[in-house]
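testing teh design pipeline on a random one, pls ignore if ur not involved
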């Protein structure tokens, strides 16, 4: 959606702090002022969409052949692809994609310290802009009479320099002494239709061109935060009214909240009594949810008692059997609660001792013999094995 001239304010930043800032809204509303007074335009900027023009000599416009999709990895690689041509360290430049034509990218390259400087100037003045353009791309282009002819626009910026735009995305600034050589290089690439633009005509066409120019240097880390949507703004506006309504409602139900507070006080007292009972019953345990914890603790006690009884039953039966097997010496005993099994690691002089014990136990309980191994220790033969004793046979 295009904006009218009255809703658009153009700021042209200088090349150095000593030069003035030029601002333009219409033929009747324009001027220049020192950089240190830029803050005086903050109110006007808050009422309009602000487009910032940056000096063309600090922006290099170039083209790059990039086949395939343009994803984040490709975008991050652009500074290194151009490093040789630019003669700058890839880490020090910011690259903005102006447009894509097939596999050709039209790019703008700016030193990061310039971007930081311009951003600081605007920030100090309290000015927010969501679109920055190199001033070379703000020159109007005439429609050539032949599609094979490239349009070229020239504007004498001051006594020493010219702005040049040739084609949709190419341009530069040029000192007066180098102008003829630069134009000669352009003409060497093909036919050129040259148009000289005077200052008055340029400014009159500027705002109309700005409303149609979608290119932007503010990309990547410089991309401005998105503005709040219209719905968000409406919600914020209604938020004040809703807050007032809530306040009135809170006052009206004050008596009900007081009664609820009294009930909560009684509930807290009962909670404290329950905690005291829990701590007396189970000393040393932290009380967080006494009732639930008490149920869990009692269940664990019952489970432990069952486990202990089962294990004692196993051990009692094992003791009677071992009395008849003096040649077997238990090394370790373990109990698997989940499987209800007793695991015994033992030593004996012969394998027959293990099989004899197994046969005696198997008369009343499930039992198996595992991991029998014969070893020699201190000149004597020893047999180690594992007895796994299960539940009582029915």
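output:
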């Amino acid at each position: 959606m295009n904006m009218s001239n009255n809703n658009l304010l153009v700021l042209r930043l200088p090349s150095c702090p000593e030069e003035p800032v030029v601002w333009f809204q219409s033929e009747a509303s324009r001027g220049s002022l020192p950089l240190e007074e830029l803050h005086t335009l903050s109110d006007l900027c808050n009422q309009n969409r602000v487009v910032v023009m940056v000096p063309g000599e600090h922006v290099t416009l170039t083209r790059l052949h990039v086949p395939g999709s343009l994803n984040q990895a490709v975008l991050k690689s652009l500074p290194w692809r151009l490093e040789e041509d630019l003669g700058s360290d890839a880490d020090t430049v910011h690259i903005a994609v102006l447009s894509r034509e097939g596999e050709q990218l039209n790019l703008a390259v700016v030193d990061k310290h310039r971007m930081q400087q311009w951003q600081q100037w605007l920030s100090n003045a309290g000015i927010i802009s969501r679109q920055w353009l190199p001033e070379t791309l703000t020159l109007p282009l005439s429609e050539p009479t032949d599609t094979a002819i490239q349009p070229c626009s020239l504007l004498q910026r001051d006594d020493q320099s010219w702005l040049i735009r040739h084609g949709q995305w190419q341009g530069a600034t040029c000192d007066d002494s180098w102008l003829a050589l630069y134009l000669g290089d352009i003409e060497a690439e093909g036919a050129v239709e040259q148009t000289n633009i005077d200052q008055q005509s340029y400014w009159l066409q500027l705002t109309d061109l700005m409303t149609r120019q979608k290119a932007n240097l503010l990309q990547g880390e410089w991309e401005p935060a998105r503005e709040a949507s219209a719905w968000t703004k409406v919600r914020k506006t209604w938020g004040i009214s809703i807050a007032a309504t809530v306040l009135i409602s809170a006052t009206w139900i004050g008596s009900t909240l007081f009664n609820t507070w009294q009930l909560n006080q009684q509930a807290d007292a009962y909670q404290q009594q329950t905690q005291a009972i829990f701590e007396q019953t189970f000393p040393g345990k932290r009380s967080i949810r006494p009732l639930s914890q008490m149920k869990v603790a009692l269940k664990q006690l019952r489970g432990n008692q069952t486990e202990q009884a089962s294990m004692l039953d196993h051990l009692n039966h094992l003791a009677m059997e071992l009395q008849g097997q003096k040649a077997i010496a238990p090394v370790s005993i373990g109990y698997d609660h989940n499987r209800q099994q007793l695991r015994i690691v033992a030593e004996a002089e012969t394998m027959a001792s293990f099989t004899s014990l197994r046969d005696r136990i198997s008369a009343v309980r499930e039992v198996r013999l595992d991991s029998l191994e014969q070893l020699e220790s201190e000149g004597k033969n020893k047999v180690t094995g594992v007895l796994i004793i299960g539940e009582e046979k029915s």
